[in-house]
Amino acid sequence: MATRRALTSTGTRLLIGSIREPADVTAALDTPCDIVTVPPALLEQWIGHPRSMEMARQFATDAEGLIA
């Protein structure tokens, strides 16, 4: 973390690239990086993952109860 503080104090932003698998997107988002670059086709796979779709459906169901 000392390295990150040193870099960010100079205005440097940390970027993760070369993402090749949907699981790599999730792993990258769990890091303290500033930017994650993902090819469009891979992003579609990640967003369309069955767990992502299940979570979106559950969110929509839960939100229905909040709308009056």
What does this structure look like?
The protein is mainly alpha-helical and about 70 residues long. Helices cover about 55% and strands about 5% of the residues. It has 4 helices and 2 strands; from the N terminus they run αβαβαα. The protein has helices spanning about 1-10, 20-30, 40-45, 50-65; strands spanning about 15, 35. The chain has a two-stranded parallel ribbon. Helix 2 (about 20-30) crosses helix 3 (about 40-45). The longest helix is centred in the last third of the chain and has 15 residues, at about 50-65. The model has no long low-confidence stretch (mean pLDDT about 85).
Describe this protein with a few key phrases.
4 helices; mainly alpha; 68 residues; single chain; two-stranded parallel sheet
